[in-house]
Amino acid sequence: MKLLIKSTAKSLSLLLWCLILAHWSYGQKLDTYNYQRELQGITEQWHTIVLPDAVFGKVAPDLSDLRIFGVSTNNDTIEAPYVLQVNAEKIVNSAVPFNTLNTSSNREGFYFTFEVPTAEAVNQIQLAFKQQKFDWRLQLEGSQAQNEWYTIVKDYRILSIKNESTDYQFTTINIPRSKYRYLRVLIDSREAPVLTAATINLRELEEGNYRTYPIQTIETTQNKQTKQTEIDLQLSLPVPLSQLNIEVLDTFDYYRPVTIQYCTDSIKTEKGWRYNYRTLSSGTLNSMEENTFKFSNGKIARRLKILIHNQDNQALNIGAITLQGSVHQLVARFNTPATYYLTYGNKYAAKPQYDISRFPDKIPSATTALSLGQEQIIDQVEEEKAAPLFENKIFLWVLMLVIIVVLGGFTLKMMSGKEGD
To answer: What is the pLDDT of residues 240-270, one digit of tens each?
Structure first.
C-alpha cells in the first residue's frame, strides 16, 4: 500500500511540473507583454538603446520585464540578450599612506602635522575627534621641508552636533588637488581637540549622465503641530530618480533633519485622493555643505514629499528644488537578422539571465545608439484562449485516460501480488 501511495505521489508531481512548465512557456511569449517599440537602425552586432522616460511608468520597479524580441522573415521569435547600464556618477576614494608626526599648540591654536611620504596628490582629509559637540575653525597648510608653510585653505569650518533630535558631523576637509610632503592642520579652539583618527585621500569623481526632470506641481505647507515644513512635488511621468537638490535662501547657519518620501500607491476617498508614502532617503539640511541627497537605488516615482523638521526654529525659505535621474540604457547583441522590438509591461516576467552579463570585458565600450519607434500596444490573447488547461476538454480526456491507466496498472500489480501469495 505504501508503494502505491509513493507511486501515485510521483505521478501527480510529474503532472504538476508539466503544468508549471507549460504555464511558464506561455508566459514568455511576445503577446504576454503590453507594449513594444521598434528598434530602428540596426547595422552592427552591438548597439545601445537609451530608455525614454515614457517607459518607466509601464515597467516593473526593478526593470525585470524589459525584453528585446525579434521577428524573423520565417515568423520565428528571437530574443536578443542585453546588459542594463545605469550612467550614475562614480566616486573612488584612494587612501594615501601618511604618518602622524606630532601634536602641538600655541596661542594660535592646536596643530596636527602629517607626513605624506609618497609623491601622490591628495584632495581630501577626513578627521575624527573624541568630542561629540564642537564648532571649530581651522587652517590647512602645506610644506615640502617644514621650513616654509603655504596656506591651502583658511577659515574652514568643522562641526559636530549630537542631541536628542540631531546627530550630525562635518569633519571632512575638501581641498584643491595638492602635492606636499607635509600637511599641517591648525584648529582654533579653547579646548584641546582629541584627534582619534585621520584619513588622507585622493577623491576622484567620474561624472554621471543625468536627466533633469521638470517639476509639474509643488505645494509647500507649514505643519505647526509637527513643526515640519511639508513640500509635495509631482512630476509629469514616473521616472527613475537619482538625486534631489534643495536650495535654501537663508544666509544664517542651520541644520535640520530632513526626510524624503515617495508615493507607493493612492486611494480615492470621499474627501479626495489619499496617498501612501515610504521613506526614500533621510539626512540633514545644513549650511555647511551642498544640500544634495542621492538615491542609490534609482527609485521610480512620480510624487515626492519632503519633510523638513524645524523643531523650535523658524521655517527656512526654500528656493529651487532640482530632481535628476541617471540615464538608463541597454547594450544589446544582435546575432540574427530580424525586425526587433523593445518590449515591456509584463508583471509576471522574471529577470532575464544572459551569458553576456558574465563576460563584461567582451562588451564593446563604444556602440551606436538605436532609434526607437512610437510605442505600440500589443494585442493581448483573450482570456478564453489563455484559460487554464483544466477548461480544455481534450486535456481533461487525456488526463482521465492517464489516471485510468495509472490506477489500472496499480490494480494489476496488486492482483498479481495476491495470486503469488
So the answer is: 999 999 999 999 999 999 999 999 988 888 8
**CA triplet 76, 80, 86: central angle to 5 degrees?**
155
Show the beta-strand stretches assigned E in 7-121: 35-40, 46-50, 67-71, 77-79, 82-86, 90-95, 99-106, 109-115
Q: Which amino acid is at 241?
A: L
How many Å apart are CA 83 and CA 85, to the nearest integer?
Answer: 6
Cell of 37: 517599440
CA distances from 232 to 92, 219, 221, 321 (A): 34, 5, 9, 11
How far from chain centre, in Å, is Cα 235?
19
Cβ(332)–Cβ(342) under 8 Å?
no
C-alpha–C-alpha distance, residues 89 and 206, integer Å: 6
CB 326 within 8 A of CB 88: yes
- Phi then psi dihedrals of residue 266, to 5 deg: -140, 150
Distance CA 307, CA 228 (A): 6
- Calpha distance 3→292 (Å, rounded): 68
pLDDT in tens, 345-370: 998 999 999 999 999 999 998 999 99
Listed residue (23, 3, 128) closest to 395, CA to CA? 23
Q: Closest by alpha carbon to 194, among 105, 325, 125, 117? A: 105
Report whether 125 contacts 185 (CB < 8 A). yes
Look at the chain and count its residues. Answer: 421
Walk me through the domains of the chain, giving residue ranges and CATH numbers: 1-32+387-421 (no CATH), 35-86+329-377 (no CATH), 92-206 (2.60.120.260), 210-326 (2.60.120.260)
Could you tell me the pTM of the whole model?
0.78
The answer to whether the beta carbons of residues 262 and 299 sit under 8 Å apart is yes
Reduced to 3 states (helix: H, G, I; strand: E, B; else coil), residue 22 is helix
How many angstroms from the chain centroid is the CA of residue 18? Answer: 37
